[in-house]
Structures are given as structure tokens and as C-alpha cells.
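Field: COMPLEX_INPUT
Field: COMPONENT_COUNT = two
Field: RESIDUE_TOTAL = 365
Field: MODE = joint
Values follow.
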Amino acid sequence: MNVPVMILGMALINLAIRWPVYLLANHFRFPPLIERALAFVPVAVLTAIIVPTVLFPKDGRAIDFSWHNPALIAAVIAGGVSWRTKNLFATIGIGMVAFLLLRWLLPI
Amino acid sequence: MVPEGGAATETASRRHELLTGLRDTLPLMFGSIAFGMIFGTLATAAVGPWPAMAMSLFVFSGSAQFIAILLLGTGSGLWVIWFATLVLNLRHLLYAATLVDEVRHLSQAWRFPLAAFLTDETFAVMERRYRTQGGGRNAHWYYVGSCLGMYVNWQIWTIVGITVGTQFPDIQNWGLEFAMVVSFIGIVVPLLVNLPYWAAAATAGVVAVVANPLPYKLGLMLAALLGIAVGLVLDLRKRGLDSTRTATESAPWTIQS
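Field: COMPLEX_OUTPUT
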């Protein structure tokens, strides 16, 4: 394996994905239907990242949908804090503290 | 906004935006400490310290870097690794499409770095900023603050992983990556304002779990696309039923240029 070529290729592929939309921004606008669809991108993508991270333990074991899963309980708490306060830093702070406490308290 | 007080105020405004962007990205920087260290450690074992560093400097994509090291270990070829990089990062197309209206007015010299340094974390931070505070004359400096924070942070923890990573064998179990989860929760929950958004989130969450075994984060992409589709359909139906709306608003598929 030629590692420098591999790295160069990966760097170029990443640019090829990230750059064109900004590069061509002056030459086109998305149709209104696409613009409506894009409004759902943050909710859809971030939720699709959050949920598996919370439900699947890192060691590749099966899904853990129980109160023994500290990530699940802490995520629910963080969701509640965010719903009530709409405050990002309170959500992060309380969510993190809850997670670390629960991991320490809950029997694995 | 009207500039006042000339260059000094302008510099202060830029610095303020830059530092605010950096501050708002801090929890996510914290969240990638473990990823950076683990990557540095694994990559050094697989390809040596300099290629490991080069990947963080030039590829700057945590998930693609990890999968490349993993695939190298299984003896995969160049094209498999490149394909994985492409599929893994397709979601950045959606990010760029979502943010493009906010960078359209900038010069190409600005847009290039803002595109090249776009990550999951910076997208989440920027989307929230534009939504809650709008653009503003120097919003792109806030964007720079977020990118710089993520980039420098990623390099630092890669170096730490390369140099002393083997001394922290259980860093995966410290729970640092949970900072990313709670940050994203704090960004998503306030967005759940009506049924279409709830449905988009529920669809994306369920599909992401069901499709989790798919390789190359294809499950993530599938979940995102289905979530967006469900949200859009419900949104269009809601608008269709809402007959009090002005007719001028509903003209789909007209391409403006």
C-alpha cells in the first residue's frame, strides 16, 4: 500500500465533497422544494448520529435499551433539560455530569 | 448593521465573532479528545507517526481516518479505502447545501477554507448560530473560530496519541465522546417545533439503529435521507392543508438563477 497516495486521495475526495456547493454558490440556487427539504438536515443527521451512539455499547455488543445503559439515561436527562431550558450549555453540563455519575453508580 | 468607528470597531467585531465561535465549539472540541488520541495511537501502530500526522493535517475527517486505518489492517486496497472515504463523508454535501446561503456573499478565497474545514461539529454550531442569531456582517469570523478550534484541537490530540497514546490504553472508557452526544441533543431538541420535525427525528433515529450494521456509515446516510423525506412530506401536507397561506409561496421546482 502506498500510504502517501492513499492520504492524498482521501484529502482530495474530502475536498471534492465539501467544496463544490460553496464554489458554485453564485451560479445556482436550490429549487424551493430542495430548500424546504434542507431545513430537516440538522434534525435528521444529528439524530442519526446521536441515537446509535447512545444505544450501542462501544465494544460492539448488542443494542442496550435498558436503564443499565448510562448513556441512554443521561441522554434522556439532557433532552429534558434542553426541552425545558433551551439552554445549550446547561444541557451539555447537566448531561455530562449525569452521564459520569450514572456510569459510576450503575452496575455494569 | 452599519459599520461605525472605522477599523478599530471592525477589528473588535471580528475578534468578538472569532472568540464566540471558538467558545461555542469548545464542548465539541472536548468531545473529540478521545477520538484524536485513539486515532493517533492506532495510526502510529499501523502506518507510523508521520503518515498518522499527515492524515490529521490533510484529510481532517475523524471517521474517514479511522476507517482507513481499520481497512488497512484488513489488507483492503486503495480503492476500497477511497470509496469508504467518499461514502462516509457524503453527508457533508447536505451540510454545505444547508449553509450555502450564508456564505454566498463571500469571496471564493473565503469560501474555500470554510468548505475545506467543515465538520459535523462545525456544521452543528454554525447551523445553530445562523438560526438563532442570523448572519451578521462578520459571522464568517465566527465560522473561522469554530473551524480553527476543531482543527487545532484535532492536531493536538493526534500528536498526544502518537507520542503517549499507548500509556492511556483505556481512554475509550473515559466517556469523553459523550460531550458530542449532549451537544447535539442541545442543538436538536429546540428544533423539534412541530410534527414534521418530530417525525424526521423519529424516522432518522429508528432507521439509524436498524441500519447500524451497514458498512461505511451507510446506515447514517440512509437514516438522514429517510428522516428528511418524511419531514418534507409532512411539511408539504401541512402547508397544503393550511389554506390561509398565500398562493405565491407554493411554486415548487422553479429554478432561480
